[in-house]
Each structure stands twice: as structure tokens, then as C-alpha cells.
Amino acid sequence: MRSASTLYRLEKRWSLVFIALPVIGFFTFTISAMVFSFWFSLTDFNPVRMETRYVGLENFRRLFADALFRQAVFNTFFLLISVPIGMFFGLLLSVYLQQKGAKNYALRLLYYLPAVSSVVAINIIFRYLFNGEFGLLNHLLNIDVQWLGTGRWPIKFAIIIRNVWAAMGVAMVLYLAGLNNIPASYYEAADIDGASIFQKFFMITVPLVRPISFFLIVTGIIAGMQNFADAQLLANGNPQGITVVYYIWVRGIDANRYGVASAASILLGAIIMLMTYVQFRRSSWVEVR
Amino acid sequence: MHEKSEKFVLKSFHIGATLLVLLGAMTMLLPYIWMALTALKTPSEAFSMVPTFLPEAPQFHNFRRVLTEFPFWRAVSNTMIVELSVISVGTIVSALAAFSFAKLRMPYKKTLLLMLLSSMMVPYATVMLPQYRAFQALGMVDTLWPIILPGLFGNAAMMFFLIQYMRGIPDVLIESAKIDGASYLGIFVRIIIPLSKPALAAQVIFWFVGIWNDYFAPSIYLTSPRVQTLQVLIASLNSTYASGTNFPLLMAAATLSSIPMILIFLFFQRYFLSTVILSGVKE
Asked: CA B156 to CA A88: how far, in whole Å?
């Protein structure tokens, strides 16, 4: 029989052995990569050249002088409009599809489908649907919009429409979980007071799902700021539709300009980490059924 | 009178909402239907100025051509290599770490846990360039290694979810196993794993779908057809065929690549719809 303190030492040792791989992975793929990103952003590192010089904040200066970057930043923020729009439709859907039943269940499945579909397939189809000459959308609505052209707004709205289409279902599922937690007695009391359907929606439903709205808006912004596939596949690199991550890719991987691309990636990382931190602070990350 | 008009308003409101939801449902379905129908068209039908809904003569051979003329099966097998290696190893690594955090006494537990979870805050774009440079130096660009290797060290989101789940397993079970002389690894294999099966199943399904649809990192690393995963293959067909040479073939490939995920979704629908895995909710 081993003593209690030996057992304790054994447990502590094994507990560390069991987390060794994730810790090693964290230092290899996250920490050291971030350190290198930081270093790249302060040098003129180029993988096809031998020597590397420290250049201070020169990359950041060049970054902000780069019209393509400024455009990518504007686009990335503008495209975030799709987050609240998708949430709004998701909330309406959840209220409508709240009742159990086969028809509602089938509709929920349908609205959620884009969440399990590949962004590649979706973007290729949407690029075809949005096509200015033979696209189905212009034909059905009997309009003539060059969605994929070089105009300032059309491609942005195409990306926003595609994202609202894909995000409604995810918001709906989360809101359904939230609606489950609202006691029916609240609505009954409002009925007695003679509240209208709109009053019930805005005075009971909307305030009581606020934690879910907060979660959706923060995770939506974080995901939206990392959007790459829409810029590459739907906008096809059209400067009016590219995002910051596309910019990092095109300057870094494609053009070997690691310094400028890393400067952009450091700024993006800082903003996203801050937002995630806010989210962590606000939420307890509980499991909802 | 007032009562009656209010009922009328409510009823017409409900009819309006129903119509909108059904219109929305058609909008959800349309891109998928359009993809499948276009896959059966001829190239000139697909690019006619006045789109026709149904193909004149369904070109079923488009699907056969995708399977024979493109490295489609090669791409499926590359995708499955990533799926199986990452999920099998990654799940065990994540579950073992989760067990350790949830049930074992560990020095600096809180700090270590926060550290690992903080990796979820870091966007891929921030670590992408150094990782690319490192894999380039190791001669691993244009192989599956850069896609597989990071996954073998576990997945922070999965680990976090499993920790929550494993905390619900009674300590008594673990203590009595210890008294019976079981090792920590034995406890993990014989008690923790069987009791965590539902949580593990949900996580594995989500991860499977996630890897199947993963595009960003694979598109950076996998350039030659020999190593391309399904999504990268289809995106590369897109850049070759989107200009019109044979658009229906591209749609056929996209359809074929979507079918497995739609089937998994329908088969495991409860996991996707009724359990919301992680949602931060605090009043």
C-alpha cells in the first residue's frame, strides 16, 4: 500500500503527462508562430532573399499607405452588417418555428443546412446565381445588377446576402434554445394586460434573449473578420469585395511580402483577441439544451 | 367588435408570416436545387441568357465524367486520410487532456487551462505566415502534413467541451477504481471514455464535417492534384471551368462533394439541432 503523499505525487505527475501534447502543440503552433509573426512585422523578411533587416515600424507605415489594405479594412467592417441582419431573421424564424411538430422541424433542418455545407460549393453556386448576364437572381427579379462587377457596392451586397442566407439558421437554433428558457407565464401575464403581439415580442422576447444576441454578435464579428473564402471565391479577388485576411494571404503567401502581411495579421489578431476576451468575460460558456 | 378586429389582424399577420417563412424556405433550397439541376445541363444550357429551369435532356454522364476525368477519388481519399488521422489521434489527445483537467489534481491547473483555451482567441491568419514558412523549411508544403500535424495535438474547443462534460462524472467512480488499484490510464480507458461516449460522438461528428469542409489552410498548402483535398480540388476546378468551358461538370463535382455532408446532417440531425454545444449565456 502506497502512502497518500506518494499517490498525490503520482497523480500530479500523470495529470501533467496527459496534457503534454496539447501544451507542446500550443507552444509550437500558436506561441512561437505569434512571436515570429511579430518579428516578421518588424523586419523586411522575405523567404527568397538571404538577409533580413530590422525596419522598426516601417511595415505598419507601408500598410496604412497601401490603398488595398485600407479598402480591405473598410470592406471587412462593412460586410459585418450581415451579422445583425442574420440574427434578426434568425430570431423571427425561431419565434415562428418555436412550436413542436414535423413541419416546423423540417423547416428548421432546411434553414440550418448551410451551416454544414462547404463554403467552396456555396460560393461557387452563389457566384453563378449572382452572374450579371445569365444569373438566376437577376432573371427572377427582372433586374439588371452587375453583382460581380467592379462597382463599389454590388459585390459587397452579394457577399452580405450570401452570409445572411447562411447565418440565419445558426442564429435560429441558438435563439430556439433561448426561447425555451422563457417561462410561458410571462406571455400569459402580458395577454391578461392586453399586450399586442409586437409588444410581447419587443418587451419580453427581445430582452430575454439578450445574452444569446450578445454571444451571436461577438462570435459573428470574430468569424466575419476572418472571412477569406467569400473574398477569394465569390468576389474572386475583386478589390471591392476583399477582406483583411485575403489581403494578408495575397501580400504574404502570394507576393512574399511577409513584413506588411504580418503587420496586418498582428493588428487583426489584436482586435480579435480583444473581442474574444470580452466574450469570455461576459459569458460562462455553459451548455444549453 | 374590437375583439373581432384584433383577431382578424392576428390571423392575417400569421398568414403573412407563414408565407414569408415558406418563401424563405424556398430561398434556402434554391441554391442546392440549382446546383443539382445545372449539373445535369449542357454547357450552353447553363450559360443561356434566359435561364431554363429543367435541363432539356438530363446529362447524367456529367457525374460519371467527374469521377473519371478528374482526380475525384484521389481527393476523397486525401480528405479521408486527414479526417481519420486527425480525428483518431486528436480526439484521444483532447479527451485525455480533458480528463486530466476535469478530474485529476494538477499543479497550476487554472493557469495551464486558461493558456490552452487562449489559443482559441488567436485567428489563423495571425499564425499562418510563420507556420507556412516553417513547413516550407521542412519541405512539407504540397504534402498533407501541414494539414494533419497541428490537429494531432488536440483541439482546444473540443477539449473545453469535454472538460465540461467530464466534470459531471461522479468522483466516486474514479476513487473506487483507484482503491482497486487501477492506473490513471486505466481509469481513462475503462471509466471516462465509456461514460463520455455521447459527448465524444457529437464532437467527432462536428469535427468530421469541419474537416471535410475546411478550405483556407488546405488551399494554401495543397497545390498539386496529387495531394488536393476535395474542397481544394473543387476550388481549382472552379478557376479552370467557371469561365464557361464546362460549368455543369463543376456543378456536378460540387453536388457530389456536398451529398455526404447532407446525409450526415440528416442522419445525426439531433446533434446539430437540439444540442447547442457551446453558447455563452449569462444573465
From this structure: 30
Cβ proximity of B204 and B158 under 8 Å:
no
Judged by a CB distance cut-off of 8 A, whether residue B258 touches chain A is: yes
Instruction: Report the amino acid identity of residue B151.
Output: G
pLDDT at B9: 79
| Class of domain A67-282 (CATH, top level) | mainly alpha
Chain B residues whose CB is inside 8 A of the A8 CB are 105
B35 touches chain A (CB under 8 A): yes
Cell 399586442 locates to A196
* Number of other residues whose CB lies within 10 A of the CB of residue A53: 11
Is A2's pLDDT higher than 70? no
Average pLDDT of the segment spanning A180-208:
91
Domains of chain B (ranges, CATH numbers): 63-271 (1.10.3720.10)
A vs B: CB pairs below 8 A: 307
The answer on pLDDT for B87 being more than 60 is: yes
Local structure of B42: helix, strand or coil: coil
| HSE-up (13 A, CA, CB side) for residue B185 | 6
Task: Considering only the beta carbons, identify the residue of B93, B105, B279 that sits closest to A215.
Answer: B279
Q: Do A18 and B97 touch (CB under 8 A)?
A: yes
ipTM here: 0.90
Residues of chain A with CATH 1.10.3720.10: 67-282
What sign has the CA pseudo-torsion B66, B71, B77, B79?
negative
Residue A148 contacts residue A158 (beta carbons within 8 Å): yes
Q: Which residue has the cell 424563405?
A: B24
In tens, the pLDDT along A211-264 reads 899 989 988 999 999 999 999 999 999 999 999 999 999 999 989 999 999 999
